[in-house]
């Protein structure tokens, strides 16, 4: 959602679709389904344009409908299938069929399909598009609620961060670094605005569950024994449980719960593997491990950057998503370049395994 936006209703919904990018995936698939089910060669989804009253903007499309994504049309423009608020079937230069997209009884958009003039549409095609429009409305509503809820969740997050900081200053500083690196990687992957915000919140709170770990274990100046490791591994689930009970943070809770899963399926708590692990959790895992290795800990000194990167490469394909490991050095070089530093090349030999 664009910063400082205050309008409500359909206009806000339109902005959420365009700004978040979340619903466009669902809506583009719906446009494709519309083409396939009604025998059209083009379909698009339009919503009210925030900037120009009486206008709509094409936010998704398939086939010939892709050509107009981003264009604006008058609400009553026959070229988009007639009035925004009414069903429409027509024959002109191209045959068209269109239905309103509603939320809570209010029309805020339109689903259209069109084909060459020799094609004709009727009640069957209207019924199909009406069913798809219900799904389109749900997708846009979800995107809107997600965009509106996440910023409001920041107050809850700040309270949790303060609790972490009071308990363990290292954990708070570590989380800040994980946020910075995760955000940079997420931007490199072109994650949508809501996805990036959820990623940042999860990176900030990934160690929240450690509030329940006794100081004798959390700050132990030596490797943990087996029982202590079992207890420490509970922190991902404990943190997720706290976040699940905070309205608007359920998706963040899932990311936190999965940030110690491993690419090869031997991680915890659910032994997820590969792309079954949420992408945000995989991002946090790589950034978490890197910062942990390059920071002084109570049980060992920090590793040099090159050694830490070599450790990550050694774990690519087993512990970590290899594609994300490959992206990290460039991110570090970009950030180091901004500060006048440079990430050193990896050492000729591997560093000793590091307890994370």
Short description:
The protein is α+β, with helices and mostly antiparallel strands and 356 residues long.
Structure in words:
The protein has 356 residues and is α+β, with helices and mostly antiparallel strands. Strands 3-2-1-6-5-4 form a 6-stranded antiparallel sheet. A hairpin with a 6-residue loop joins strand 1 and strand 2. The two termini are 36 Å apart. The protein is 50% helix and 12% strand. It has 2 domains: 10-148, Beta-Lactamase (2-Layer Sandwich); 153-338, Hypothetical protein af1432 (Orthogonal Bundle), CATH 1.10.3210.
How widely separated are the two ends?
36 Å
The main pleated sheet reads as: 6 strands, antiparallel
Compute the number of helices.
13
As a percent range, the share of helical residues equals 40-55%
The CATH topology name of the largest domain reads Hypothetical protein af1432
CATH structural architecture of the largest domain: Orthogonal Bundle
The CATH homologous superfamily of the largest domain corresponds to: Hypothetical protein af1432
The level-1 CATH class of the largest domain: Mainly Alpha
Report strand %. 5-15%
Number of domains: 2
Low-confidence segments: 1-22, 344-356
Helix and strand pattern: HHEEEEEEHHHHHHHHHHH
Q: What's the multimeric state?
A: single chain
Form type: elongated
Radius of gyration: 25 Å
């Amino acid at each position: 959602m664009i910063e400082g936006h205050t309008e409500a209703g359909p206009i806000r919904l339109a902005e959420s679709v365009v700004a978040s990018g979340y619903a466009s995936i669902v809506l583009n698939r719906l446009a494709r389904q519309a083409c396939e089910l009604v025998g059209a060669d083009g379909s698009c989804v339009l919503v009210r344009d925030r900037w120009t009253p009486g206008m709509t903007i094409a936010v998704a499309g398939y086939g010939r409908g892709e050509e107009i994504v981003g264009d604006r049309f008058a609400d009553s423009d026959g070229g988009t299938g007639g009035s925004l608020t009414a069903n429409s079937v027509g024959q002109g230069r191209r045959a068209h069929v269109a239905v309103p997209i509603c939320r809570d009884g209010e029309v805020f958009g339109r689903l259209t399909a069109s084909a060459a003039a020799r094609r004709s549409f009727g009640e069957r095609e209207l019924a199909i598009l009406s069913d798809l429009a219900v799904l389109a409305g749900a997708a846009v509503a979800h995107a809107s609620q997600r965009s509106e809820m996440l910023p409001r969740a920041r107050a809850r997050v700040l309270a949790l961060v303060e609790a972490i900081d009071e308990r363990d200053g290292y954990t708070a500083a570590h989380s800040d670094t994980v946020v910075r690196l995760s955000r940079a990687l997420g931007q490199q992957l072109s994650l949508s605005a809501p996805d990036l915000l959820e990623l940042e919140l999860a990176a900030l709170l990934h160690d929240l569950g450690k509030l329940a770990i006794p100081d004798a274990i959390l700050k132990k100046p030596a490797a943990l024994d087996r029982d202590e490791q079992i207890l420490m591994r509970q922190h991902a689930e404990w943190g997720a449980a706290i976040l699940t009970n905070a309205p608007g943070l359920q998706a963040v809770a899932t990311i936190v719960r999965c940030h110690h899963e491993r690419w090869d399926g031997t991680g915890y708590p659910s032994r997820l593997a590969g792309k079954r692990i949420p992408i945000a959790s995989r991002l946090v895992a790589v950034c978490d491990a890197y910062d942990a290795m390059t920071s002084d800990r109570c049980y060992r000194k920090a590793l040099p950057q090159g050694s830490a990167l070599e450790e990550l490469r050694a774990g690519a394909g087993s512990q970590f998503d290899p594609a994300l490991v490959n992206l990290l050095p460039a991110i570090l070089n970009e950030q180091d370049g901004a500060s006048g530093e440079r990430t050193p090349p990896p050492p000729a030999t591997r560093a000793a395994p590091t307890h994370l």
